[in-house]
Batch of 3 targets.
Target 1
Amino acid sequence: MNLSDPKDLASLLEAFLLASGKPMSVERMAELFDEIERPTPSLLRKALEVLDKSCKGRAFELKEVASGYRLQVRERFSPWVGRLWEERPQRYSRALLETLVLIAYRQPITRGEIEDIRGVAVNSQIVKTLLEREWVRVVGHRDVPGRPAMFATTKQFLDHFNLKNLDELPPLAVLREMEPGPQLVDVEEAPVPAALQARADLEGEPETPREQTSFRSLLAELDSMETGLKTDFDDLRGETDPEEGQSTPEEDRRDY
C-alpha cells in the first residue's frame, strides 16, 4: 500500500473509521501510523476528501462532527434501519427539550436563569438526565450569592445531533416551525425531589404559580440572545466535574 497516495490512504482511513465505531480526529488517525510512515495532516485531509467523494451514491456518508470524522448511515434510511433495534427510541419530555434548547442557545446559563425564562421550576431529574447523557456540563459558577452552577453543551451533544460546532445550530426560526406536538406535554415527569417536596410542605400554601412560557414564546425570547454565543469557557472559575451539577438541598435553596 502506498501511503503517499491519497486513494490508497483513503481506503485505510475507511477501515479505521469502520473499526472505530466512533468519531476520529485527524490527530488520532495520525497516531495510528509509525512515525517513519506517518502522513502529514494535509495528506490525511486530502485522503478524507477522496473518501467523502467515494461515498456519493452510497447508503452511508462521511460526516465531520465535533469529535472528528465518522461513517454513518444517511438520514433518509433511518426509518428502515431503525427497525434493526427492537427497543423504542427514548422519548423526552417537553420540559427537558426546552431546558436543553435554552442551554444550547444561551450558554453558559444557570438553573435559576432557565427558570426565569421558562416561568417554572426546573426538575432536578432533568438536569441529572442531561448530565448523565453528557449533553451538558458544568463550566463554572456565577459570581453571585450562592454561586450557582453554569451549564453549557458538550462535544457529545454536538456529536449526537450531527453538528460540527455551535455555529451549525439551526436558526431559531426553524425550531419554531418544529414546535413539539402535544404528545410531549403528556410525557410523565420524574417525581419531585424529596428536598423540594419538603420545602413545599414547610412553606404551607404555595404561591400562585407563574404562567409557564410556551415553547413558541421561549424561542421568540431567545431571538434576541442568538448573537454573540459564548463557546470558550476557559476563563470561567471553578471548572468542575459534571457530577457536581447534581445539586444538594442546600444548593437548591441558594439557586432559587
Target 2
Amino acid sequence: MIAIDNLKFDEKGLITAVVQDAQSKEVLTVAYMNKESLQKTIETGETWFYSRSRQELWHKGATSGNTQKVISIKTDCDQDALVVEVLPAGPACHNGTTSCFTEELLKNDQVGTVGIIPYLAEVIRTRESEMPEGAYTTYLFTEGIDKICKKVGEEATEVVIGAKNRDKKEVTWEAADLIYHLLVLLQEQKISVYDVLEVLVDRHQQKRASTKGN
C-alpha cells in the first residue's frame, strides 16, 4: 500500500482522479483531488474532490444525493494519477447522464468489449418490464422458466458440439447465444450478473490467499 505522501501532486497540490464504475468499468468522470480531499475520500468511503474553479473541496452527491461509494483507489506507475473505482448512487455528470463522457470522436463497432454484457443485461431487464410485442426476449419471458431453461441447455450443447468439431466460428456463435440466454435466465431468477461476477472475484481472491498461505 502506498502512502498519500508518496504521491506526486502537481505544482498546485492537485492530482488527477479518473472515476470508474467498479462494476461496468465505465469511466464516469475525471476530477482533481488534493491531499485533504483524498484523505476525506479514504476516511468517509465516498468521493471528495477539489474544485479548481471554486477553489474548495466538494463532496460528490452532497446536494444531489448522487454519491459514489469508493471500492478501490489505485495509482499509476508514475504515482501522479489515480483511478477511483466506485459504486455510484446516481448519475456522475451534472447533465444527468451516467457518465460525463458521452460525445464520441471515434468508435469502432467491430471491436468486442465486455461492456456489452451489463448493457445486454439492462436491455433484457427492460424487455421483461415492458414486454414489447414481437421481441424474442418477450417471447421467452412469456413462455416462462421451462422454455428459458430449455434454450440454455440447447445452446450449451451446441457449444460443446462446436468445440468437439474444432469449429471456432461455431463455438463463438453458439457461445454468444448461450451468454444471451443465460442472462435471460438470470433476469428471470432476479439474479444480477454482478452477483455472478462477485462470486468469480471471491473465488479468485480465496485461491490467491490459499496459494500465498502455502
Target 3
Amino acid sequence: MKEQLLKQSSYFAALTDQELAKIKEIMFTRQYQEGEFIFFEGEVGEGLFFIKSGKVKLTKMIESGKEQILNIFKAGDMFAEVVLFDQGKYPATAVVIDDSEIGVISKEDMEEIMRNYPEITIKILRVMGKRLRRAQERIRNLGLKNTKSRTASILVHLAQEHGWDNKNKTSISLSLSQQDLAGLIGSSRETISRVLSKLKKEDLVDVSREKIVIKDLIGLKKII
C-alpha cells in the first residue's frame, strides 16, 4: 500500500513504524470505479475508510429530491469515522468521483486501535470537530448569504483543499459539473451558471468543463 501517504495522514503521523504496521495489518483494500457507491445513507456502518488514491463525495438527498453534496475527500483523507462513536448507520451516501483505491478498517479493529493508542482518538475527534464547524458555517451561509457569496465561499474552500498553484492562479483539481457545484452550495444549476458567468466577467475565475481556475483568490474572499 502507499505507506508514505498513510504516514503523512493527520490521523497516523505520530505513530511509530511498528504501530503503522499494525494499521496496515488490519486495513484491507477495495478498488472502485468512477460513479460506484461505497455505501448508502441508512446502511449499518461497517467501519471507516481511508483514501489511498482517487476522490470520494458524501451526499444526502434533501426533501426536494435534489442531491446535497456534504463533502469531497481526496487521497490521504479518512471518512465515515462517525460510526465509531454512535454505533449507528451511515448518515450519508459515499460515491466515487474518480477511480479510487480505498482502505477499509472495520469498526471492531479500529476500536481496538483507539483503545491502545488514545492519541488517534483525539486526532479523529479534532478532524470531526473541524468538519462540524465547516458544516455549521455552510448552514449559516445558506440562511444569511446570497448565492454569489455562497459560491465564492465554496470556491475558496475547494481551492484550499483541492487546489494547486500555477502562475499566480489556483487550479481546482476536481472534475466538478455545475450540477455538482449546485449540490455543494444548495442552489440550482441554472443559478450557479449565472453566478459563474458573473465571476468570470469580473475576472475572478475561469471555468471550463474540465476544471475551475481561481484567477483572483483575494478578490473571491472579499465577496464572502
